[in-house]
Amino acid sequence: MPLDLDARKPLKLCVLKFGSSVLQKPDDYARAAHEIYRHTRNGEKVVAVVSALEGETDSLFAVGGDVGEGCSDALLARLVRCGELKSAALMGLALQRSGVPSAVLDPHEMDLQAEGEALDANLTGLDADRVLAHFESADVIVAPGFFGEGVEGPVTLGRGGTDLTAVEFSHWLGADRVRLIKDVDGVYTDDPAKNPEAVRLDQLDYDEAAKVSRGLVQEKAIFRAKQNNVVIEVAALGSPFATRIAAVEKQAGPVETPKRLRVAVLGHGAVGAGVCSHLLAHPGRFELGPVLVRDPDQHAANAPELRFTSDPAEALEGNPDIVVEAMGGTDIARSLSQTVLREGHHLVSANKAVVALDLERLHDLARQHGRELKYSAAVGGGVPVLELIDLLGAQGSILSVEGVMNGTCNFIFGQMQKGVRLAEAVSEAQRLGFAEADPSTDLDGLDAADKLSIIIRHAFGVTLAPDQIACESLNDLSAQRIKAVQEQGLVFKQVARCEVTADGRVEARVDIEALPPEHPFAGLVNEGNGFLIRMPQRTVSVQGKGAGRWPTAEAVFADIMDIQRAYLSGDLHASPLQETPLSRIPRMSSGQVA
Ligand code: HSE
Q: Does residue 590 fall inside a structural domain?
């Protein structure tokens, strides 16, 4: 996610490797995207190295053998690498759907060199600067594992070779960690499927790992990690735990089975439907109750796999662990959100209007009842800007935050530039699931004001109600101003801004601005959101898809998964909002704020 604009290098970098055991079918790329997003929203840049889909390499070898009986290994290598190329492209597509800014690179685009036998080669070098340069615009680089560019063409690295790719990337890029994602929760002393006495290890050294992992981790990869002091983590998808392979003493660890959580979803619009789809894709982790909607029959016709109810009490029946609020609006949603916490459920909300109105009250209720309150999706859709603000706020003072934080307005301005009429652009934004039920909320700046109010609380520890933030409406743009701005080659953006003044006040407003093409926000297209966070020594930016089903559902699902991991690691009740987050600014009443 974030890139330090001044230093031009990632704050933290991790390499994640997804093997065939976790890429068994096309749906699994969405799961891998969840895992990647979990890291990017924690402030890491990610290199995702992927294997082919399960069975693909075998079938490519088989078809190659049939078509070219007795053919050269060099040609077979050229063929079988296609499994990884296809897989990297699929991973890129899944990330794009989720709104995670990413770039897919082939080995020749990274100058990834290899030498040795065509089907058992080793990697010898990588143009690290060329790879890292992509992090200026992407949070994730996807690379196919298993092969590199030999002198006479592509060569593969032997079975399990994607582990080797991941370890070498970690070494050459100076990553903070490399995590190999497998279908087991770590390395065991023996095969746990065959030996019930097998013990899961928290850590072990390289030599022991080569002995006991029995191909779970490629031996060549372990050897290279030892040579270069690369610490390998072996973990299951979504797990808080990993086995560390390093220069360490062997240490056993517990086996943790994720608790299956009951989840109630309130609302089945663009966001609610996306969240339900993610929950249904994880039946081992989540059990979904009846979904609260206004008209159950209408929704049942479109989603026969779900149960629906129009009765809030029925939706909350069965004592759900987590309640997801994706209804929108401030009438029923407002009181239900408080009821949910009072009755002892964790609350994950995508409802920025409710969160902005009741932020303090909801946090108080969560604290009083020992429950989690999460609302990452309320600001920025899939852009983890609140997490970034929290991260930066813990490191020093934040001076200002400005952002394009309404995807609908951004989309509409883009359409208007292409000559589409305002009314048509609004209908299209509604059809695409970007706009609010009442799109004037988007156009008048009220949606951005809700988000800005939440940002202000996180950045400055100050409460400023949305109705105290002055907003300029898109509807107030005169035809004359539109024409003049177009003639000057400028682009319209709705920009929301908050800053601390020299005398310690917080000022905030939402404006329609005409920006030059070189401005960091000018390149945001469609439903894009972008943010600039200024600190005394540097400015940090983050951007991505700010509205729509999949990016927003990604953020909601990440909150849900965080709660599940918290059950496992005993970390429940850690509030995402610090008690006095930034005590440097005294808490002030909204009346004092301009
Ligand atoms: N209507 C909102 C927008 C949805 O367009 O940004 C995401 O909060």
A: no
- Please report the atom of ligand 1 found closest to the CA of residue 352: 8
Cα radius of gyration rounded to whole Å, the chain: 25
Instruction: Please state, in angstroms and rounded to a whole number, the distance separating the CA atoms of residues 459 and 449.
Output: 15
Q: d(Cα 582, Cα 398) in Å, to the nearest integer?
A: 9
Q: Is residue 439 classed as helix, strand or coil in its secondary structure?
A: coil
Report pLDDT digits (tens) over 156-179.
999 999 999 999 999 999 999 999
pTM higher than 0.85, yes or no? yes
Specify the DSSP class assigned to residue 539: E
Provide the token pair at 160: 């399990």
Alpha carbon of 484 to ligand 1 centroid (Å): 28
339-343 — which CB contacts under 8 Å span 24+ positions? 340/316, 341/365, 341/366, 341/369, 341/371, 341/373, 342/369, 343/316
Q: Which atom of ligand 1 is nearest to the CA of 377?
A: 8
Residues whose CB is less than 8 angstroms from the CB of residue 563 and which lie 6 or more positions away in sequence, other chains included = 261, 321, 322, 346, 348, 372, 374, 572
Q: Considering the domain boundaries, does residue 192 fall inside one?
A: no
Q: Are residues 175 and 266 in the same domain?
A: no
The CA 447 to ligand 1 mean position distance, Å, reads 7
Helix (H) or strand (E) holding 360: helix 352-369
**In this structure, what token pair is assigned to residue 550?**
């999949």
What CATH number corresponds to the domain at position 140?
3.40.1160.10
